[in-house]
Amino acid sequence: MSLQESVAVLPGVGPKRAQNLAELGIVTIEQLLGYYPFRYEDIQEKNLLEINDQEKVTLKGVVVSAPVVNRYGYKKSRLQFRMMQDHAVFTVSFFNQPYLKDKAVVGEEIAVYGKWDAKRKALNGMKILGGKQPEDFAPIYHVSKAVRQNTLIDLIKVAFEKYGREITENLPDYLLQKYRLMPRPQAMLAMHFPKNPEENRLAKRRVVFEEFFLFQMRMQGLKQSERSEKNGIAIRYDVERLKRFTQSLPFELTGAQKRVTNEICYDLRSKKHMQRLLQGDVGSGKTVVAAIALYATMTAGFQGALMVPTEILAQQHVESLNQLFDPLEVSTALLTGSTKARERRVILEALANGEIDVIVGTHALIQDNVAFSNLGLVITDEQHRFGVNQRKVLREKGLRPDVLFMTATPIPRTLAITAYGEMDVSVIDEMPAGRIPVKTSWIKPKQLEPTLDWARQELANGHQLYVICPLIEESEALDVKNATEIYEHLKEFYAPDYQVSLLHGRMKNQEKETIMEEFKENQSQILVSTTVIEVGVNVPNATVMFIMDAERFGLAQLHQLRGRVGRGSEASYCILVASPKNEMGKERMKIMTETTNGFVLSEKDLELRGPGEVFGFRQSGLPQFLIADLVNDATVLEVAREEAEQVWLLDNWRELPEFAPLAAVVLPTEAGETYFD
Ligand code: ADP
Ligand code: MG
Prior knowledge:
Elements: H1 15-23, H2 29-33, E1 39-42, E2 45-46, E3 56-63, E4 68-72, E5 76-85, E6 88-95, E7 109-117, E8 122-129, E9 137-140, H3 149-163, H4 173-178, H5 184-192, H6 197-227, H7 239-248, H8 255-269, E10 275-280, H9 286-299, E11 303-308, H10 311-324, E12 332-335, H11 341-352, E13 358-362, H12 364-367, E14 375-381, H13 390-396, E15 402-407, H14 413-419, E16 424-428, E17 439-443, H15 448-460, E18 464-468, H16 483-494, E19 500-503, H17 509-520, E20 526-529, E21 542-547, H18 555-562, E22 573-577, H19 583-594, H20 598-615, H21 617-620, H22 634-649, H23 660-666
Parallel strand pairs: 2-3, 6-8, 10-15, 10-16, 11-13, 11-14, 12-13, 14-15, 17-22, 18-20, 18-21, 19-20, 21-22
Antiparallel strand pairs: 1-9, 3-5, 3-7, 4-5, 5-6, 7-8
The structure holds adenosine-5'-diphosphate (ADP) and magnesium ion.
């Protein structure tokens, strides 16, 4: 007998039903036993005196009148009888369930679950609870048309009867003791059929811990196998040259920048394979940290690649790198989708023979057939936009460079250790000195005109404006003002004093670059744009940003956009133009006006919208947990991670008897099988 047997071995499960169960993800007995209800219905027996109108309750009593079925219309019927509880009599009716008649026998005690109608002193029955002792909690499962609640419940009961003894513990004993966790066999049963709410709470507590712990064990395993990679590269950079480089920067690094630079350099130097996530709020100065890492790599004779999501951004990064590096010392190149074929050939050749030290490009850079002479470091900016497949792509190409992921979307810690649990995390939690927080206000669309008038004072002081719009064209479905319309309007509004330009995603890259260039050179003072400027654009002279239909953006995105202003030393403003329809929308606008801290915002966003919305599971590689909840069970996640780390610190845990069951569920079974991918 094994839990791995197919559910088809259970009585009443033929090929058809097995197929229907498989559609719910239930193939083995173990999967059936682990198919937990998503909620429970409280069907504890209540007393007539303590219940309210329209409350769903279970009432126990003696049947005192013979059940009568009235049929009317096609297939419609009403079953009625009376029950008595402590001398009080009430009516019970069931609609369209005439067959229940046999279960109501005069003089016998039964329990009926239904909705109480206080005025009529009647119970609208939903079901008659079977057996002598009705369960207090009825499990409710996600089911399909082909598999009904009761069918599933019956199958699970049978499976427990036959296979319950096969359920074994998979956590080491010391963890059960330390956290007073319910043993696995008991917990699995109590997840389905708890004797009382308390037992169910304890079962759930155990299951949540187990889910997080097993996940973290696998993550830590992955981390270990990445680290111990024998062919990782030790990038022995030239300390003296690196020092000279940092001293040549136009500013002193912040304490946080120094700290993360040290963390990165340590990884570069060591032979272990770097997988590091660099988080830093917009404007915290990640680019210069990337530049230092790339420079270090170059001094050790290796090549570096910087990948970014858009061509504009790639262009801009090359420029700022060239400014920072002494161009004579570091040879850089730009490679994007719009690089001309001839130039492309030259660059590819120079890359292959090692003439290029640092290459900047969109992520196609890694995917295309690009050969490096000696790739040592890959940095990706705005990592979340790439998805999670780069490591795989790199591995498939036989490359094992150190990898640094940079992101300006501050990820709440709970999500970071889940989605990126196999990575080390560095955080820049300090802004360069002298920054004045962006002043954010929220206005209604009808206040737009006066606010545009107010902005004239900023323009008069020589500053520039961004106006951000969510979509480029009128769509029937969404009543969104399109960028072109706003552009036309603003051109008229500010004529003849100021120049307005328009930038949107449908333009050719060349055109986009020209427009960005003009804005940078202050040839135009107002830039109307769709979200193409979302990441990375650096025009310190722009001090005002209007965001139209701001309620359509996520908090993280609004924060990103807002980061485009306030990059200089002057006061700057972000104006959210929005008329949110509901409370949550209003709340989100309000939070934006109250904090400029990206971490606070993302925690809040997570609270308001949940991890699925904030992240998009597929894109982020964020796993879906069955029972555990990333928001509500955050503390358990932390504990589970710590414990998993502790286990992996024991070099030989895999050989220790007390961990044998754990190893069996956590470790890849087949040679060559990896944890993910
Ligand atoms: P991020 O990429 O993190 O959003 P950037 O690297 O683009 O931020 O830096 C934002 C601005 O701050 C740039 O103009 C950069 O030159 C400047 N900067 C970076 N580090 C410092 C520092 N330590 N002191 C002063 N200015 C800095
Ligand atoms: Mg940046």
